[in-house]
Predict the 3D structure of the following.
Amino acid sequence: MNHKQRRKLSLIGFLVLFLGIACTLVLYALRQNISLYYTPSQALVKPLPQSQNLRLGGFVAADSVHMDPRTLALNFQITDYQTAIPVVYHGELPNLFREKQGVVVSGHFDGQGHFIASEILAKHDENYMPKPVKELLDQQGAPHAG
Amino acid sequence: MLSWSKHFLVPKYCYRLSEKLLPWLTFVWILSLSYGLIAGLWFAPADYQQGDGFRIIYVHVPAAIMAMAVYSLMAIAAVLSLVFRLKIAALVMSLSAPIGAAFTFLALVTGSLWGKPMWGTWWIWDARLTSVLILFFLYLAFMALRSALPEEKTRDQISAWLLIIGFINIPIIHYSVQWWNTLHQGASLKWDPSIAPSMLYPLLAMILAFALFYALILLQRLQTELLYRERKNPWVKEVIDELS
């Protein structure tokens, strides 16, 4: 490696290092904006303005899903297993929506602690397994993933 | 190793080496692709919550891995071409771009098709999806930039710098699902995979098949380009004589 090559290589090295640091700082500063949703705990701690649109991410609490057969309004609690927030929703649901499933709901607070959702997305987890394995795991009482 | 790599840098030997490699690569490619497709689409059990819909993983994950791998390889070639002025490195860099862009496009489309029934939306601006879209635009920018520069030397140099600058996006894509809250799930492939073995092995075979497919296309494009560039040299005439 001659002098010129070494100089160019160190120039590339410095450029990558500099860009890496710059990007880290920018992305760190913007982390709240980049994150797709607030967890229920974060949403209650932060003084969020009423009627501002935001997303909540968490799990559908067990035994909390109720649908009013007359109005088809859906009520459930979204939880991160520390805080639960009641959600009201009226509309289409994705295939994977069910109790204990991870979901991301967008909407706004109504001022009385209820979250009025305008869209519900199911969050799939990284676990892939056949049905028999899942049933076996459930029988053995493995912690639910999802 | 050194003499082998030196040989690869001489156009004539690069061509001949590709010629020797291609049949073997094709053989392994057909094996892994047929095992991956048959085992993945037929024998692998349906997922406990997604049913048969999970099978898109056999295209989506290999395409996404290759989208990032091809870009990383191009960035390495860019450094080699800038520092050591290797002609072959510049060729690998430019000839890989459309293949990488195609993998990225495939990953975006299959993800979108899966997202609608499973998540409930075709697209969401979360960190993973957005950073992969940026990767796609980087590939397009690289190709557009090259076609805008008429002189080969400046074209190779400037587009190589673009690749190196854009490389910062690769770790961002990889860690996006850990650093930020995203709708996209975390990685299933890791040292302790969170995907059942019966589903995992076909996936690994498909990843190998996609990687070999890239190698096959790249080597053939490289051969064509070398034949064209060296068309005034006697070794090209030898090759043509052999073929006809």
Summary: Chain B is about 80% helix and 0% strand. Chain B touches chain A through 40 residues (CB under 8 Å). Residues 7 and 160 of chain B are 23 Å apart (CA to CA). Chain B has a mean pLDDT of 92.
